[in-house]
DNA sequence: GTTAGCATGTAAGGAGTTACATGATTTT
DNA sequence: AAAATCATGTAACTCCTTACATGCTAAC
């Protein structure tokens, strides 16, 4: 039950889904994709690749005659996902472990929604929404209790936090609706033009 | 130059600034305050307290006759901040190390703005804004390059990310203005009532 | 020809978690 | 009297980073 360490693994499997890649490129794409928080270092990527190689989730591509690029290339090690890896990808995407709703893990799952089916997408979106809603309820109940004695900066931080999470919940709700009614609603909710065309 | 491990230390020093507390209560207040992301565990709090005790940043309070509470209390170990700790708090608050603008570290600094002076507040706010703006610029320049080939879910994630960071930047700008013109603007920007009373 | 970036790794360590262990106090 | 929660701690482990080490290739 690989609940820990799923983050990089899932990201690599998802990216390799788009085509074979070498480590350096994986890192670049990952940092572009999840650039918001941390920058993935080689010190964690390469060992992870080795481990996945041992687990036969990925394999080396020996010859890949990319059209247009000269073949005189030595040091690059290009990986591709195996059948086992594809199965593991699906398993990880649908797994609802305790860390699956954290920011980074959710973002990775969301980024690869195109490689899954609607059932899983809905489960992930609704799970995240439920989690955020729980946090919101917890904070707001505590907020009403301790309201009087809080310093104004701490209060402003809480206000801003609540507002951000509420916004996130609305975003998730829009996405869930869009999943359920694929025809009626475009993926992007009408922020700019509130009229139907 | 304790650049790492500053997070808990700063939080503890900031909280003890409000008055003496024991470990359990520190954890509760911290989780209330920064409840958004992780929950601080005892396994990291208590060792940190021990370390700070060794460094004389905090000290045990032997007798504290809290009015109204019976004194028959044994196992609680109440800490208070020392002079050295107060100095360290100021130092950490004004330090602009590479991790100071990360979400958690920024939130902690912000939460204790009431215990610092405006100079430091402005430096922290402006530093955070600069960092976010840099990320924004980097992502948007990359976004314009790779625009065509991106999957729609990955694109929506990026769009949402950019929007969130832009919102955060605006929030910071409002706060910076409020710091610079303390009379004119209330801390909270006029969301509900745009009129002056 | 030298700087910048591509490309792959290893070793040591940091910052925290989970799980375990223990006992007192309050509530039901 | 049992259950919940208060209260303090330790040991092992995980995931990741930083710093180091190496060499190739493109650009200036």
Write the layout of secondary structure elements.
Two copies of one chain form a homodimer.
Chain A: H1 6-16, E1 21-22, H2 23-33, H3 42-54, E2 58-61, E3 78-81, H4 83-94, H5 103-111, H6 118-146, H7 152-180
Antiparallel strand pairs in A: 1-3, 2-3
Helix pairs in contact in A: 1-4, 1-5, 6-7
Chain A binds a DNA duplex (28 and 28 nucleotides) through residues 4-5, 7-8, 22-25, 38-44, 46-47, 50, 74-77.
Describe the structure.
- The structure is a homodimer of 197-residue chains.
- By secondary structure, the first copy, chain A, is mainly alpha-helical.
- Chain A folds into two domains: 6-113, Winged helix-like DNA-binding domain superfamily/Winged helix DNA-binding domain (Arc Repressor Mutant, subunit A, Orthogonal Bundle), CATH 1.10.10; 117-180.
- Chain A has seven helices and three strands.
- A three-stranded antiparallel sheet of chain A has the order 1-3-2.
- At the A-B interface, helix 5, helix 6 and helix 7 of A face helix 5, helix 6 and helix 7 of B.
- The structure holds a DNA duplex (28 and 28 nucleotides).
